[in-house]
Amino acid sequence: MKPFVDIHDVTHVYARAEDGLPAVQNLNLKVNEGEFAAIVGPSGCGKSTLMKLATGLQFPVEGTVIVDGRQVGAPVKLAGMAFQNPTMLPWRTTLDNILLPLEIVEPHRSRLRRHKAEYVAKAEGLLAQVGLKGQGHKFPWQLSGGMQQRASLCRALIHEPKLLMLDEPFGALDSFTREELWCVMRDLHAAQKVTIILVTHDLREATFLADRIFCMSARPGRIVAEREVEFPRPRDLEITYTPEFSALVHELRGHIAQARQAA
Amino acid sequence: MKAKNKLALAPWVFTVGFFVLWEILCHVLKISSFILPAPSTIMGAVWEYRNQLAYHAMHTLWMTLAGFGLAVGFGLLLGMLLGSSRLINAGTYPLLVGFNSIPKVAVVPILVFWFGVGWVPPVMTAFLISFFPIVVNVATGIATVEPEMEDVLRALGASKRDIVFKVGVPRAMPYFFGSLKVAITLAYVGSVIGEQNASNVGIGNLLTRASAAFEVPLVWAALVVLAVLGVIMYAITAYAERSMTGWAQRSQMAA
Question: What is the strand order of the sheet A36-40 is part of?
Fold first, then answer.
């Protein structure tokens, strides 16, 4: 099976980097279609750079990035993104925020005006899936942080992206809300068959959600360990309290500690 | 009395108090009406010259609004250009700042060379003096779009144009309306300066003639008319700001 995202021997230095040190070096990573991959690592290891490389917002200085069988030379257009900060536009209602990608991406862009009702129904369906049924008319600033983050996930998924990039999307939430959103994410992944790359600091989060976990070293970032997660799906939150789960988290923690020490 | 009612009454109480105090001081200290006329004297002059004042005030209002309108259009366009291109921004900033530093009174003679005496110099002066805050504010609003938001849209294949129009411009609107309040008062300054130096009508021209003839109460009456017009125009822009960008005014401080 050909990987959906194939980052091969990539080194990237930002043009604006003052020390000229690469953000990532000789990075290799393969994610299969429909897979849920998680990337963990010490802070400042170039996880966000990896996101930008995979979506075509940055191009590698060396090496190749292949997404969906094509080498990335421009923004990939088939990606959805969500960040720690929900970045909702305050002048649009939640529903209009979710519809925003459709105003950009073809073929929706030219269809949106005439098929508005169809798209609105779809957005409302997504809102219901993340537990925000009937909240679309509210402005984002009338929602709590957790609710805004749910809406941000809807926005990332509305155009049915083949690739979903999540940069610490649950980082700013309290632990109960976070676990709720893990389950939302798990169900969305099961329903949409989308390839997901999740960047996170939270090893439990990575272990609960992912099929495959990559550990990155400190800057310049490389992959120091790759680990498949065998827990059967659908997973229940209860598995996070089993000894097998703890053992895996512990193992990952070992890799990260090593990576930090090496720096 | 409720705090809200107090707030609504405060501007009236303070304004009336100010004029009452002024009136009392003029009588108690026996200030000559040549130096500082009492408000009652000024109001008398406003009534006496009401036809003349109304005619000239309408002219000034037109000059101001025309100049202001030009400034809004030009300011929006240039602000959008500066906000969306770092190169143009860096390149033109020194020019803009330099131009803005020139006192506009000094430009009026040039406008007279070009356009002669008439309605053009006041309109142009009002325009030249008031576009700068609009440009700066619109450019700032657009240039400070959150990088994450930009990433979200660029990853979808959005063009620079898409980002400017979908995010930059709406986001700059609170800055834009804020700058309008500054610009409208500046436009008044501009049109009056223009009228004083290069027009045969308008409050500015009336001021020049009245002061040359030492008609002190008329000078003061003209000033009062200007102040009232200014307050009304300011209130209209402030109202437009509130109704267009309610989403931006949800902080406790704005309430």
Answer: A79-83, A163-167, A195-200, A36-40, A212-216, A223-228
